[in-house]
Design a protein that fits this description.
There is one protein chain. Helix content is 48%, strand content 18%. With 307 residues, it is α/β, with parallel strands linked by helices. The two termini are 27 Å apart.
Amino acid sequence: MKVSQINVDKNMKVLDLLEQFDNSGVLGAGRVARACNILADMIEDDEMSVFLSLGGPLIPGGMRNIVTKMLNEGHIDLIVSSGANITHDLVEAFGGGHYRHEGKDDEELNEEGIGRIADINVGSDDFTVFENEIIKIFERISKEHKIISIQELLHEIGLMVDDENSFVAAAARNNIPIFAPGLIDSMMGLQLWIFSQDHDFVVDAVADMHYLSDIVFESERVGAILLGGGLTKHYTLASNVIKGGLDSAIQITMDRPEAGSLGGAPLEEAKSWAKARCGSNLASVVGDVTVIFPLIYAAALDKLCGD
């Protein structure tokens, strides 16, 4: 089939542009269009449980409201998140913020108590607000629970957060579980450790697997939206190996496959491990999540409204 050249004009909608990508069918444009089509199909499939994996600095990178919208719209049924994304969501929920990097030297930032994530800055004052508030929440939860799973902990935290834009709060309100297997590797994990030094309070990571395996087994089909790589991607894939793998998935990552890392591995590789089914509908896109995912989600919403 001949490659169709991409056309653009000033009146195009996002979906129009993605359809041009689809018609071209090649290189990055074709892969982005395929991911959009798979995403729309996953959302539309009422018998598919859709897992969202959040790796990398997506919340400080501007994706917070999109994740919350997906929860409120019922477009996802489960989240696997890094501890950092949960921490940064709560930083904003408690009144802190994230700021654009203005080009200051990193040693100067250190003197001012500012940490840098690429071109995003977070101040020590913002983390102080987070630390003070999360300890108050731990105090309340520990009075009711001496041992709690990570998923249950995050649900209880979400119920106590008063912020309509918080994805942790939105998940709790909509009774959608959040799993965070690497929670200890974050500022929240540090605060949990400090709190546990003088409180009888244990967070049981293994307990999550009972709940997660029930969700997988009870789902007719499972799809996944893998944003970034690393632990959250693997936890999502591995949780589905017990039932033969994912039925459908998209991934967006900046990682490359040559070094053999999971983060850069194409989704097709997951078939060899039975983490994705043979015959499953998959699309891997190499690129920046904060650029590509808003485009394909907006186009998928437009596509679904048109249907």
